[in-house]
Fold:
Amino acid sequence: MPAAKPIAKPTIRQTRLMINNEWVDASDGNTFETLNPATGEVLAKVAHATAKDVDVAVKMARRALESGPWSKMDAPERGRLMYRLADRIEQEAEELAALESLNCGKTIVDSRGDIGGVVNTLRYYAGWADKIEGKTVPVRGNFLSYTLRQPVGVCGQIIPWNFPLLMLAWKWGPALACGNTVVMKTAEQTPLSAMRLAQLAVDVGFPPGVINLLAGLGETTGDAMVKHPDIDKIAFTGHVDTAKLIQKNASPTLKRLTFELGGKSPNVVFADADMDAAIEGAFHAIYFHCGQCCTAGSRLFVEKKIHKEFVQRLAAEAKKRKVGDPMDESTQQGPQVSQEQLDKILGYIQSGQKQGATLVVGGERIGSSGYFVSPTIFDDVKDDMDIARDEIFGPVVSVLPFEGMDEVVERANKTNYGLAAGVWTRDVSKAHTYARRVKAGTVWVNCYHVVDTTTPFGGFKMSGQGRENGEAALDHYTETKTVTVKLD
Ligand code: NAI
Ligand code: MG
Structure:
């Protein structure tokens, strides 16, 4: 087999705002720089949307919703447009994946996986477009009552940098299937791939104003969206503290809000587990995409009987990991997304050492350009250490030894988060007991990070509000209207 070589750097074709199907500069001409996290070099200057730009995008989205061709389009036709977009993305998959890796630092193999997820998501929701039905309701008296499910309206969507295109698809999919219009803001770290994809949406025939794509910072562009009186809903993915601020800032306009926030997900290995599978699974749970996953299995509970051997074997795997250029097909781990994230992660590694956890492997920055961190394992972590409580969002796992179901369930649930949880065991009863008792929106048994567009995804407690994916997402993108008719 020939050795894998780095793939070519993709062309950056779009750097401006897409409003009403046209590419425009920011109203004040301002831009911000977007970087290559593997090198720290500037890739492009990108238009920074002002509050005025947000307002224009909202007006266009409102017009498309109320009176444009989209407002009159038959539901199957809406679905067809979405299928066409999915097909077009499939044709451009390699270019989109390269752009994603360049701007986000994700390995090219992972980026290709993400594009597959984008295509699946759009096709899944395209299929829903003409299957969103109301009900006829048996009311008292001589009346006919039925429900209509109508779009929520203009949807403001604010996404993060860890899965730029996949988060776009999770939010466009249900919004468009239900007939809404969209004003989306990408993360300031990763605006480029979404811009390419927005152009594809224009190419396949989405009418002007249905999809508007803005770039900009959270505290400027994002804040203007949250406060805008004519945005009906905000769908947000990101940090829990940002969600608290959004909830506060959205309160004067009482927007609908859905949140997908982070986690400190417990991944529990019982002594009776298939050991090889559990080691591979625990490894993937934390190190997939450099730990920059809301569902990362960052609290690894290992039953005491097998704890020492488990940690040794996990560390041996971590030492073998190939960290480097995300554009190289043989790379297993790329850089963290930014200097800010790198500093945050290194800060937690210091805190783990200071608070008395045992650093087994890793714990260092790799190189001096780009934002690379070696796969890191802390052992003998206590529940109250910062590394066991806070979302680190890096390749750092905290190993917590335990004894027995009751103890581990109590400790697993001792967190404000509740996004995901894993369990490894051969005992069917143990698996289902844990699944029932752990407080999390998703539970994986003998697997991890298996996320499908067809299954509801979201958090208990402070990990979120509402659900994305699956039929569940449709509830958050429709308003239910009751119509009652007096019969003669
Ligand atoms: P963030 O929550 O600040 O950013 C996410 C998105 O929200 C970005 O598009 C950002 O521009 C926007 N935003 C920020 N402040 C806003 C505001 N006041 N109003 C409206 N929009 C706003 O997250 P950040 O700073 O990128 O990452 C910090 C930490 O957040 C990470 O270390 C990680 O722990 C967590 N995070 C969780 C994610 C998840 O998938 N749940 C994704 C990204 C980050
Ligand atoms: Mg932030």
